[in-house]
Amino acid sequence: MDAMDRRVLLGAAGLVGVAALSKLSQAGPLDPPPGPIGPTGITLEQVADRAAKGAEPRTPLAAAFIITIDTPGSYFLTGDSGSIVVNASDVTIDLNGYALRGGSTDCITINADRVTVRNGSLLNSEFSATNGVRFGADGVTVHVDIVLEDLLIDVGFIVIRAEGNNLAQRCTLRRVRARCRPSGAQTAGINLGPDCTVIGGEFLGGRVAMTLGDGAVVSDFVVHSVSGFHGIRVGARSLVRECRVHAVSAGPGIVTGDESLISRCVVTNCATGIEVGARCLISECSISRSINFGVLAGQRLRLERSTVQNTTGGPGVKVNSFDTTIVDCTINQNSGIGIDIIGPAMIDRCHLANNNGAIRFDALTRVSNCHLDFNAAFGITATALSFGGVEIRDCTITRHTTGVSLATGAGNSVLRCFFNGNFTAISAPAGAAAPTVTGASAASATNPLASVIF
Q1: CA atoms within 13 A of residue 451's CA, in its CB half-sphere
Q2: What gap in Å lies between CA 368 and CA 354, rounded to an integer?
Q3: How many CB atoms lie within 10 A of CB 402?
């Protein structure tokens, strides 16, 4: 390092020192003030007082048989109480960990908008005709923007009740755990109108778990042991995701209106696993041990990356109308047909085994890249082919009475398929030219890469 470099470094160090001294001078005098040393901060009480000045004042609610709130504001319980009636909008109620024991009345009645209730229990299971939360007691007025969170509700009638399906709108439920004692045919769970959201929580018992209107969102919710009509029911344009539904004895585990999405749900031991309207998507779901159908759908269903198995009384997937797409699914061990649909349809990259028939449709359908094994009567059967237009390609079809059975119709093709162990590999339409299939009548016959045009 030459002399010039040393001068540069010393100059820089001097500038740093001057800057540091300047900052110290701005921080105040270095010499302490005269007199004894004492505290210079503020007390915890002063901190709390300052915080309270910026917060909404809260009003305590003393125990009473019925507490009526007619003024907007923030309230909190000071102990277990009877019931609460809210007649004012813009109200927040913190149950403060205590319980409302409604007795012969509903635990909470809400006759207003923008009401929040949180952090406590609603209990009146000993009275079969009373509810947990009730909206719209007049049966006419719509109430909106209600928030219920961190609640335990155990009642004998209806957990959350709106007098009409549209009388509680834009409501939000978070982490609500509920039980409905099945004391009669009307016992039910959560009944809300359109544009409502349920995030987290659980429901047990009753005859209906949840009924929401159009535009609903239900996420991370658990339903089990429902004795009646459905588990989670939402209207059109709704989303149900990451939910678990178990043991709905007389209806669907999940049922939606048109244009809805069901994603990453598990449904077991229900009368029907999932039932959807038109133009719906079911993605990454597991449906098992249904009684009637695993999936029951209207037109333009898309079913992808899902498992449907162990349906005991009917098809794994039943679609009652056209334009079906089923992709990347496993459909196994259903006592009925694995996929039973009305075409046109597209079925791709699916595995079907041990069903009572793998795939049945009527016309204008393409089945590709599928593995079909040991599905009793048939691998693929196409019926009433007045339009024909069936294409079966790049499939493995093994161990059936008939691998592929095509009824009347023209323009059907079986391309690049591998057959093995079928009693009959391909059954041709009546009157059509005999297909070129090697060893089709032998139980152990194989005819790899069969290409047949009807």
Answers
A1: 3
A2: 19
A3: 20
